[in-house]
Amino acid sequence: MLQETIYDNRELSWLKFNKRVLEEAVDENNPLCERLSFVSIFQSNLDEFLMVRVGSLDAGKDSKVRENKTNLTCQEQLDRIIVKENDPVIKARILDDFECMRRLTRATRHMHR
């Protein structure tokens, strides 16, 4: 029980990290090119996370084995990931990312004229 207050679950901690990457992407204090890089990193990280980490949890979801640091089963981890991934703030920021990419595309086209 004490361990739960000391350790973060690896997957949930990873989602927090990727959310920070996304925050950099939407921060208008960052140059547009850097913001686009953060968008790319965010999406690449998310793709890997969903294919590899969530995929392996899904494969083990019927197991009752608990992860040793946070004492969560695969199914409990999946349930928490689903809640985090459906966060309306994250969804809104993803939409902001697409707007950032559109602005960069327009700026690039203008520079080439």
Structure, explained:
By secondary structure, the chain is mostly helical. It has one domain: Polyphosphate kinase N-terminal domain (Methane Monooxygenase Hydroxylase, Chain G, domain 1). The chain has helices at residues 2-6, 10-26, 32-59, 74-85, 88-111. Helix 2 (10-26) runs antiparallel to helix 3, helix 2 (10-26) packs across helix 5 and helix 3 packs across helix 5 (88-111). It is elongated and about 55 Å long.
Secondary structure layout plus pairing:
Layout: H1 2-6, H2 10-26, H3 32-59, H4 74-85, H5 88-111
GO cellular component, one term: polyphosphate kinase complex
InterPro entries: PP_kinase (IPR003414), PPK_N_dom (IPR025198), PPK_N_dom_sf (IPR036832)
GO molecular function, one term: polyphosphate kinase activity
Strand content: under 5%
Describe the global form: elongated
What Rg do the Cα atoms give?
Answer: 18 Å
- Element-by-element helix/strand order: HHHHH
Q: Give a short account of the largest sheet.
A: none
Q: Low-confidence parts lasting 5 or more residues at pLDDT below 50?
A: none
Class per helix and strand makeup: mainly alpha
Name of the CATH first level: Mainly Alpha
Number of domains: 1
**Would you identify the CATH H-level superfamily?**
Polyphosphate kinase N-terminal domain
The CATH architecture assignment turns out to be Up-down Bundle
The CATH topology is: Methane Monooxygenase Hydroxylase, Chain G, domain 1
Mean pLDDT: 76
How many helix segments?
Answer: 5
Number of strands: 0
Helicity, as a percent range: over 70%
State the separation between the terminal residues, measured CA to CA. Answer: 63 Å
Instruction: Specify the oligomeric state.
Output: single chain
